[in-house]
Amino acid sequence: MSLSKKVPSKLHGKLEKVQGTVEKTMGKLINNEGMKLKGEQKIIVGQAEIDAAKHKEASAEKVASPVNQASGEVTANTGQEVVEQTGASDC
Fold first, then answer.
1. What is the rounded distance in angstroms from the CA atom of residue 79 to the CA atom of residue 7?
2. What is the C-alpha separation between 75 and 45, in angstroms, rounded?
3. Is 91 helix (H, G, I), strand (E, B) or coil?
4. 20: nearest Cα among 39, 33, 34, 38
């Protein structure tokens, strides 16, 4: 999977870190430096993905808040206009 198309996920990042921890531990146990380093790399990549997912969520919340607020204002204004129009037509 290419990094440019990958969507960051906290769950996938945690899974990557767990796999890295297992691989690093196995590398230590069997005295395999390559396996140990590959495990350390997975831990770093997993943490980076978790951080990216958190950043993505925070950015989405910042965008959603003003949009929801504006939507509420439009709905409130529309409701007032309908009441005013209804009241004018009843006379």
1. 40
2. 44
3. coil
4. 39
89 vs 44: CA distance, rounded Å:
67
Element (H, E) at 6: none
Residue type, 52: A
The fraction of the chain above a pLDDT of 90, given in percent, is 52
Closest CA to 45 of 78, 74, 19, 84: 19
Give 82's DSSP letter: H
Residue with token string 């996920």: 9
Q: What contacts 16, CB < 8 A, 6 or more positions away?
A: 42, 43, 45, 46, 49
What's the whole-model pTM score? Answer: 0.61
